[in-house]
Amino acid sequence: MDGKHRVFIVDDDQDLVEIMRSVMEAAGYEVVTAGSAREAMERMEAASPHVILLDVMMEDTVAGFRVVNFLRDFETYPQNRKYEKIPIMMLTSIQQRTGMKFSQDAGSRLLPIDAFIEKPIKPRALLDRVAQLLAQQ
Q1: How far apart are CA 91 and CA 84, in angstroms?
Q2: What residues have CB less than 8 Å from 111, skipping those under 6 apart?
Q3: Is 35 left (phi over 0), alpha (psi -120 to 50) or beta?
Q4: Is 97 left (phi over 0), alpha (psi -120 to 50) or beta?
Q5: Domain annotation covers residue 58
Q6: Which of 3, 21, 99, 137 has most Cβ atoms within 10 angstroms of its Cβ?
Q7: Is residue 1 part of a domain?
Q8: For the chain, first and last CA: distance in Å?
Q9: What three-state secondary structure class fits 8?
Q10: What is the pLDDT of residue 93?
């Protein structure tokens, strides 16, 4: 690796992915993307991310939660313990669409992620939050 932090953006909204890619690359990050939960799980090892930006609702309303389960359920997926320290930040509009709030559960056993951010997010806020997550590693 050349010293750049690698961000894995997982979202089915390709316009948003390209915006986030532009913001992250302009700040010096390397970016890898996936357009679905399935693709994210298939590409995780090759992506070798330092931080994951993950949408909740992709091919279905709980697709992002499947990715979290895949990465954090070490009883079912013991081979994924290597991803244990990679921060996961969920970016979603689920609250706007459904009224459900998950942020209070972030970091819990129920939702073992490191941050939960509602879309839309301003570029500076995105960069600041990613930097914070990477600093905690």
Answers
A1: 19
A2: 65, 68, 102, 105
A3: alpha
A4: alpha
A5: yes
A6: 21
A7: no
A8: 17
A9: strand
A10: 75
Question: Within a domain: residue 49?
Answer: yes
| Distance separating alpha carbons of residues 89 and 40, to the nearest angstrom | 14
Q: Are residues 88 and 44 in contact, defined by beta-carbon separation less than 8 angstroms?
A: no
Residue 93 to residue 106: CA distance in whole angstroms: 15
Nearest to 31, CA basis, from 5, 64, 58, 2: 5
Token digits for 28?
Answer: 């010096």
Question: Beta strand pairing status for 30-34 and 88-92?
Answer: unpaired
Structural domain span for residue 11: 6-135
pLDDT digit string (tens) for 73-120?
999 999 999 999 999 999 887 655 555 555 555 555 667 899 988 888
* Beta bridge partners of residue 51, listed in sequence order: 7
pTM of the model: 0.88
Structure tokens at 41: 């799980």
Question: What CATH number is given to the structural domain containing 45?
Answer: 3.40.50.2300
Helices (H), the chain: 14-26, 37-47, 63-72, 94-98, 123-135
Q: Six-digit token pair at 18? A: 């390209």
Q: What are phi and psi of 116, to 5 degrees?
A: -135, 115
| Residue 93 belongs to a domain | yes
Please identify which residue in the block is written with the tokens 């290597």: 82
